[in-house]
């Protein structure tokens, strides 16, 4: 039954994609025929559909000699995904415009070139603006008060970077910006709350991104957890070994104690579907620890805030949502999650959800920014912050 449900869902998605792309392709064909009236309809649709499904084609396992072709298709397909979202929003508006012209008796056919050119210019602006948001990151600083003690009164500085999505799109150039900015913070801890990889580990190894990531430095160490994309890639054992070799420990339902503070790393909730044992509940995971000490937990997907608060977690760090990555998707993520981005206080629990450093699919962000978090954890005996000042809004462009 489960396999049938998966096949049914996949079939439905495929049909929807075909219909959507036919709708987009038809409008593009009308525009192209304005300049090339004798264009071959067969060639047009063959090329268009190849581009439209290039991301899917790029994920097909290919012989080693053809892998560069597959990577090229994945890059082309990634950018098309952004173009497709733009078209789905803008083309209905263009159709409404033409409908109004038709109802008012205006000869609408002569406005095809003008309307199409306007949409192309808007698409270029959208891609350029979205690229700037994706590649130029910001650092957001949060100062969080925890009424617990570690035996000293100094604040704990933690650098947090989620959703790097390192692969064929996000590579060493963007990663070097991350390493430079985090090391400039001179953090006590560095935490990576999942989706370091963009599915496949192959480009991560081939491009020696592990060597770049290994240049991160923190006084008390670097810790990561698994995200859903590490599970999709299917190389978790290899990934954890590679990370361990560069001094980054991947916590899988594990707890470490550093500087008098517990760092808790949960498995991603994908484990419940892809592993027989699933993952531990938060109370099970925290069983036996001293809750008089600060507890900072990484859980890739931002869910279960009430459970974490009742279990005694002080800070919960998540990512996953990218804040929708491309508007208006953030309206959807805002409805799906109690907190899809930013800060939330839940009883004594501080929840911080990052929009992520990298991108999935196209390296485009709209109403979302690539970001790194800098947490200043103020402990008992440190300077107190009022609830209204629990989060500072200091933002630095990099």
From TrEMBL:
GO terms for molecular function: hydrolase activity. SUPFAM superfamilies: Metallo-dependent phosphatases (SSF56300). Pfam families: Metallophos. The chain crosses the membrane at residues 12-33, 39-58, 79-99, 119-139. Residues 157-323 form the Calcineurin-like phosphoesterase domain. InterPro entries: Calcineurin-like_PHP, Metallo-depent_PP-like, Metallophosphoesterase_sf. This is Phosphoesterase.
